[in-house]
Amino acid sequence: MTKQLELSDIQGNIVRAYGKANYPKARYFFLHIENADAGRKFVEAVRHKITTAARWDKSPEMEGKPGGMPRVTLNIAFTFYGLLALQLPTRTLQAMPPEFIDGMKARAYILGDADPELSKEELESSATQYESSPLGDGKVATPNWLKKWDPIWRDSARLGSNAVHVWMSMNAKTKVKMQDGQPLMTEEPVVELERQTQWLRDLCKDVGGVRIMPLDGKTDGPEYQEGSAIFEEIDGLGAVPLPHEHFGFADGIGDPVFEGQHKPEDEKRLVLGRGKWMTPEKGWEPLATGEFILGHPDESQELPPTAPPDEFTRNGSFLVYRKLHENVSSFRKYLAEQAKSFAQIMSVSEDEAKDTLGAKMIGRWHDGIPLSKAATYEEWQAARKQWNMSGGSRKDDFLGMVAYRGSSDISDFKYGDDIRGYKCPNGTHLRRTNTRDYLDPMNQPDSDNPNATTQLNKRRRILRRGLPYGEPRLGVGTDDTDQGVIFMIVCANIFRQFEFVQQQWIQYGLDFNQGNNTCPILGNHSIHKRHTIPVDFATGKPPYICDNLPQFVETRGGDYFFIPSMTALRMMAMGIVDPT
After folding, report:
1. 473-483 per-residue burial string, b: 16 or more CB within 10 A, e: under 16
2. 139 neighbors 170 (Cβ within 8 angstroms)
3. Is residue 44 a contact partner of residue 573, using CB atoms and an 8 Å limit?
4. Alpha helices by DSSP H, 406-445
């Protein structure tokens, strides 16, 4: 029997990826609490408008009505110092996880966001910039990596007036217009998004003591980070949101499925490739709820210790917010340059070489078809034809891609039959972020293991949330364009789940027999700059090494947040979080 969750007590962004649920536009706000009384009044007003995980009536006539799909969602989360600003009890605060208390900036060297420390010469240079110490105890030298962060994150000090305390998100549907009697999609958000934004402005003004923080640190600066799916104009459909990021690859596909998240009839389909692989007889099963929501048993069959009282943390979770800038020009230029030598060595065209190299770095072809299902260019083209993604009109291609993304074929695969990485290289972004059955203790580096399971993977899964940001079109940006991905992670344990994946699998390669080589896409390439593409010796071709990888992705800031349950929000608003 499927686990029954208290969905009305859980915030909706934990259970749903809004971007994949037809909410392609978003605004992310960051607020500062100047006094606890105002903060509690603010929380009381906000909690009545929060979008919970309660299931919606998805019929069109119910949209925007109670019980139906909202046109705009609203969710909220708090940094550790936001909870402190609300004057939560010391006993509750000190029991919070240490990485959450530290915040993301203090963990930059663990995460691979930071370059090596400033040299003595740089520290003594008059050109060195300075920032407020995170502890508020003076000025410290600003390292080069931090200079690239947006001012709201770069200058944030834990106990200062520029500390980020609150994260709020609004995800919106887009308008539909009629043309020649036919409904066409647009990329313009519904009017309710601006109305709700104005409501937030007015609320801050009314309660006083809570203010929206401008992203650039200036009084009249932008008051929210905008997120937007990438759109394409397609005849007969209008402006449709694509499931791609700015490098041009389909994204956000392998989100895990956990117990109680979906209706039983939906879970049977969605869990394939997204849960945990048990045995050939049992197949895929959903992960334990406690991996993602506090107060529920996790995959160790335990209730991990949480900050008291239990009612405060139960049905909550943690959010990792990261703004990841994509150097689009560098990515395109690198693929084009490498394609020339790859094409010559492999005796293929440069166009085929470019598509193949990109797939061998990501782990999927640009339309989302995994290398594990279509390892060669010829197999990929055959799969596209099978799913009606080639040879027809652009409308037919797009509808074919939609059908494919809704199938289990896009996620139902493992790596036990590809231990050597001939199909999907072991160091690809995909294998690093979700190892599936590759790390089964019984696996051997020189032979496949069809009986491999996901036992060492199921404690490291994370829920992907967020959207791209920047110009909502493919192929128009450069390295200097402000574009990339608002990368948001939901998990019950930031250290065990997000930080482990980021540090051990993204920034190191030992678990994948890659030495110190980092992820070819998200890795820090300041020192280690290689990605190896193994080739079956039977083909007569040599392995190919992508060398001198430039920095494709750079962090522009972010922090760690706690997502309270509806019960916890009420306790915070009333000031009755009692750890005894």
Report:
1. ebeebebebeb
2. no
3. yes
4. 429-433
Q: Are 467 and 229 in contact (CB under 8 A)?
A: yes
CB 539 within 8 A of CB 295: no
**Residue 119 pLDDT exceeds 50:** no
Helix (H, G, I), strand (E, B) or coil at 352: helix
Distance of CA 147 to the CA centre of its chain: 23
Would you state the pLDDT for residue 127? 43
| Three-class secondary structure of residue 378 per DSSP | helix
- Listed in sequence order, the residues at least 6 apart from 520 whose beta carbon sits closer than 8 Å to its beta carbon are 361, 427, 428, 429, 531, 546, 549, 552
| Res. 429 pLDDT band, cuts 50 70 90 | very high
Count of alpha carbons within 13 Å of 158, Cβ hemisphere only?
18
In Å, how far from its chain's centre is CA 261?
18
Q: Give the span between the Cα atoms of 424 and 124, in whole angstroms.
A: 47
> What band does 129 get if pLDDT is binned at 50, 70 and 90?
low
Nearest-10 Cα torsion for 323, 498, 76, 160: -70
Residue 195 parent element (H or E): helix 191-207
Contact 206, 367 (CB under 8 A): no
Buried b (16+ CB within 10 A) or exposed e, 246-260: bbbbbbbbbbbbbbb
Angle between the N-to-C axes of helices 191-207 and 36-47, in degrees from 0 to 180, rounded to the nearest 10? 150
Q: Is 404 helix (H, G, I), strand (E, B) or coil?
A: helix
Domain ranges of the chain: 338-464+495-557
Residue 207 — φ and ψ, nearest 5°?
-80, -30
Task: Supply the Cα-derived Rg of the chain in whole angstroms.
Answer: 24
Mean pLDDT of the region 32-53:
97
CA distance 10 to 575: 20
Task: Say whether 7 sits in a helix, a strand or coil.
Answer: helix
3-state DSSP call for residue 376?
Answer: coil
CA separation for the pair 276, 299 (Å, rounded): 10
- Token duo for residue 557: 């800031």
Separation CA 229–CA 497 (nearest Å): 26
3-state class percentages of the chain: helix first, strand second, coil last, to nearest 5: 30, 20, 50
**Beta-sheet pairing, 182-189 with 174-179:** antiparallel
- Measured CA to CA in angstroms, residue 52 lies from 5, 56, 246, 567 at distances of 12, 10, 30, 12
Q: Token pair for residue 125?
A: 């240079």
Task: Count CB-CB contacts under 10 A for residue 120.
Answer: 8
- Which residues on neighbouring strands pair with residue 226, listed in sequence order? 27
The answer to whether 53 touches 16, Cβ cutoff 8 Å, is yes
